[in-house]
Amino acid sequence: MKLAGRARAGKVPSTDLQFLYIGRTTQDETDAYCDGASPDPVSASPEECMPRAVALPAARLLWSGLVVASLVTDLAAQRVEPPPLRRRPAWGGGIAPPADSTGATVGRVAPGSAAERAGVKVGDRLVWLDGQSAADPPAFMRRYRALRAGDTLRAQVTRDGVAAPFAVTIPLEPLPAERIPGAIVTYGSVVTDRGVRLRTIVTRPERARGKLPGLMLVGWLSCSSVEIPAQGGDGLAQVFKAIAARSNTVFLRVEKAGVGDSEGDCDATDLDAELAGYRAALDALRRRPDVDSTRIYLFGASIGGALAPVVAAMLPPAAPVRGIIVTGGFAKTWLEHQLEQERRRLALLGRAPGEVTAALQGFAELYTEFLIRKRTPGEVVAERPHLREIWYDAPAHQYGRPARYYHQVQALNVLEAWSAISAPVLILHGEHDWIMSREDQDLVLAAVNRNRPGAAKLVVLPGTGHDLDTFATLEDSFQGRNASYDPRPEREILAWLRAH
Question: Which of 151, 290, 405, 458 is 20 to 30 A away from residue 472, measured at CA?
Fold first, then answer.
């Protein structure tokens, strides 16, 4: 779950791939790429691969210098280019979202970074950011995520042993683009049917030729980026790198609204709006000239493991999903999942069994009002003060997402969605995943195999946690302590993709 983890009205294009061009492209090179014979997806833009009856004659006229005024007018009417998405910044620090007015704790400071030069240290707490106090955590994180390269980070910082907050000012440089050995990385964007422009990151193996299958990530719940960090990264990040370089697929990741370089506001984005982003990204993937649109796969991670069959239903019946990979998903109702997770969480915190059960009685009451009667946690707690002591999150949010998001998740029938899937399915479950249960994975396995016997396969990964890191114990996984990485998840995924 990654816990800390207008379009087409003819005015704005549904896809704006903002290609990072390398050199100039000749007409022959463009023809080769559009026909799937060139391996280089940065040598031609999607506009040059539009329906050939329109795009290529126009391109040839332009290359030969025969520009006709009416043609230019027609092309301009067809497409209005938005400005490029602004790049998110690199300041060299990492923070945990604030729980209260004590601030957002700095958990990482990169050596030699702007944060280090400004005097920021691990353990410092940002209590104020560009006019926004940490006393309102959602608003604070909105301001933090809205920062872009070229802005200046201005913060008030507290430190243990220092009497008063001190100010830091950090000019923000752009975060470097991903570099994955063996893969070509392309940054682009899509526009949802709600007019929100989302960042896409597409990879393709360097040595691949012709049209490839398409693979799209259906991501996690939290407002954390799908971009692979330059250094480190959890097990999922390692798997993404392996897929990018060695899967022989065109692999697309799309950021949520308000995350990474995307426009919008993540903590105000509900499930319907999030699914609109996946729909736009899936459409863009299928339309890519280097993708075989009849061979589309999905990779669902965390809550994306439950959303993957829902997203699969967006594909046309004539070209259904070719296969689905999921890790760390759920299958029951969200109410059931939350109650089970709360029990595991409290037990791992060391609470006595009777104390856990007493708390679960309160959580059952709270989540019924929240999820079934579609109220906010704050409304429930205000009316029922005895529940205040067990509620550990914001009045109108949980895990950084709005209450309406969870109302919509609760309305999903995940197993019904899985029952409509007849394509091959690979289910990965970490032995030390404390967030999602083994029982949920068995339910998915049974639902798919009931529809098509043998289509689904479940692989249990020894010692593996929710984000595909490896831990010695379940307690270490819960605490995020002493994580390592075992490449078995990537081996399982790559072997499955080769076989299907």
Answer: 458
Token pair, residue 124, equals 């410092």
Cα 232 to Cα 246: distance, rounded to the nearest angstrom:
19
Q: Which two tokens stand for residue 458?
A: 């479940």
Q: What are phi and psi of 248, to 5 degrees?
A: 60, 40
Could you tell me which residues come within 8 angstroms of residue 428 by beta carbon, excluding any fewer than 6 positions away?
Answer: 325, 326, 327, 328, 459, 461, 468, 489, 492, 493
CA distance 152 to 118: 12
Give CA–CA dist 86/172, Å, rounded: 12
Q: What does the alpha-carbon distance between residue 184 and residue 90 come to, in Å, rounded to a whole number?
A: 22
Instruction: Measure the CA–CA gap between 452 and 421, rounded to whole angstroms.
Output: 8
DSSP states of 410-464 as a string? Answer: HT--HHHHHHT--S-EEEEEETT-SSS-HHHHHHHHHHHHHHSTT-EEEEEETTB
DSSP character string of 209-270: -S-EEEEEEE--SSS---SPPSS---HHHHHHHHHHHHS-SEEEEEPPTTSTT--S-GGG--
Going by C-alpha positions, the residue among 305, 220, 229, 233 that lies closest to residue 266 is 220
| Amino acid at residue number 100 | D
Residue 315 token pair? 């594909």
- What's the whole-model pTM score? 0.82
Which residue matches tokens 């104390």?
355
| CA pair distance 175, 192, nearest whole angstrom | 25
What distance in Å separates the CA atoms of residue 494 and residue 248, rounded to the nearest whole number?
A: 9
Three-class SS of residue 125?
A: strand
User: 10-40 burial, b if ≥16 CB within 10 A, otherwise e?
Assistant: eebbbbbbbbeeeeebeeebbbbbbebebbb
464 token code pair: 């593996």
